[in-house]
Fold:
Amino acid sequence: MTTDLADLSAFVAVVRTGGFREAARTSGASASSVSQAVRRLEARLGVRLLNRTTRSVAPTEAGARLFERLVPALAEVETAIDVVNAFRDRPAGTLRLNVPGSVARLVLPAIVPPFLKAFPDIRLEVTVEESFVDVLAAGCDAGIRYDERLEQDMIAVPIGPRVQRFATAASPAYLAAHGRPAHPRDLLEHACLRGRFASGATPAWEFERDGEVVRVDPVGPLTVRLGAAVDLAIDAAVADLGIILLFEEWLRPHFASGALEPVLEPWWQSFSGPFLYYPGRRLVPAPLRAFIDFIKTSEP
Structure:
């Protein structure tokens, strides 16, 4: 039985994105051509691979089994084809990264433009996701995360600033009306703007000074999902609604403008910077190798 590799790739894209339109958008094809590819594949195999409704597309049991086997297999095919890159003057292809919102906002802007200028034949696709993911299953070449426990076969490379801090801040009007906390436990008497992970967990606020670590779980009028909605929490802090805890770099422009003031700065906790991670059990694609070499040579 001969099966078109493009049809297999179209099926994987539909399952990965959850729909034909989304798969078409990510693959640069039309939704009708993606749908036709999946129908051809189902006809060849003689089994339904997708359950289609007006609202959703989900794999059948057979489709789920096929998807699990195809993802690593197609990744190996891409790696095999990428060997040809060694015969080019410049690396080419697509590099897919999975990163959290903080990295997309604070780390990549200083790296991506000069990298793409240095390697004009490489296309970069960035997916923003807060949870730790299997980069291969997610269709990515590498991920970037903070202090995660990586699997043994993952390789981690430092990227971006090596030391960062969490900062707390509030507007001058809020502090004038409610007073300035002198100790992290004072935050329990203040309105605080919180963040929640996609898992539903709301992390406690952690502070450190002279070896003393203090964790508090304050409450407030607004909780946002960490990532895309963080700017809403910043806007709420600027609008005098409470105290916010966030990456210092994210709040620095508001410190400079005077819209926010630092709070409890002697207690701000430092943490190590992010790492680029990728599987060590496969050959490194040329675009990823070029990116790794670039961040290594451009690190201060």
